[in-house]
Amino acid sequence: MTPKLYRELTADFATIPAVNQVECNPLFQQKALREVLSENDVKLEAWYPLGHGNKELLEATVITALAEKYGKNTGQIILRFEVQEGFIVLPKSTNPERIRGNIDIFDFALTDEEMDSIRALDTGKPSHDPEAPGVGEMLLNAFKIHD
After folding, report:
1. What average pLDDT is seen over the chain?
2. In CATH, which of 3.40.50.150, 3.40.630.30, 3.40.50.1000, 3.20.20.100 is domain 3-142?
3. What 3-state DSSP class applies to 110?
4. What is the pLDDT of residues 6-53, one digit of tens each?
5. Is the pLDDT confidence value at 107 over 70?
6. Which of 25, 89, 122, 135 could be cross-linked to 51 through a Cys-Cys bond (beta carbons 3.0 to 4.6 Å apart)?
7. Euclidean distance between CA atoms 130 and 133, whole angstroms
8. How many Cβ atoms from other residues are within 10 Å of residue 126's Cβ?
9. Do 91 and 49 form a contact (C-beta atoms < 8 A)?
10. Confidence band (pLDDT; 50, 70, 90) for 86?
């Protein structure tokens, strides 16, 4: 989802969505889209909140240093960042230990400086380009959304 696509898709909606689930994690923080969503108080739900196992994210020095400082794992630092940013975060896991860890993020808070250091990880690049030629047609053909 890009700001352009969001505006095009919602232009004729009678009811604006309350939540928009899009790819969002410290490497791709959706800053431009978040500005557009905020105009109508639409909440962002992070899809791939842990970067889908991206080593660049999970092994980022700032993330690993904060994990050590707080006695948490890197996933917990990332999720705490996202919660403090105001994202709706529902990480997927089938591993009971990870599920417990994903919930255990409310006994600490990142400082403003730490938040800024994670914000600096943003590359502005998603894992795919939703505006690439053929993506829209592929999605329309993959899902029955019209009768």
Report:
1. 91
2. 3.20.20.100
3. coil
4. 898 888 889 999 999 999 999 999 999 999 999 999 999 999 999 988
5. yes
6. 25
7. 9
8. 17
9. yes
10. very high
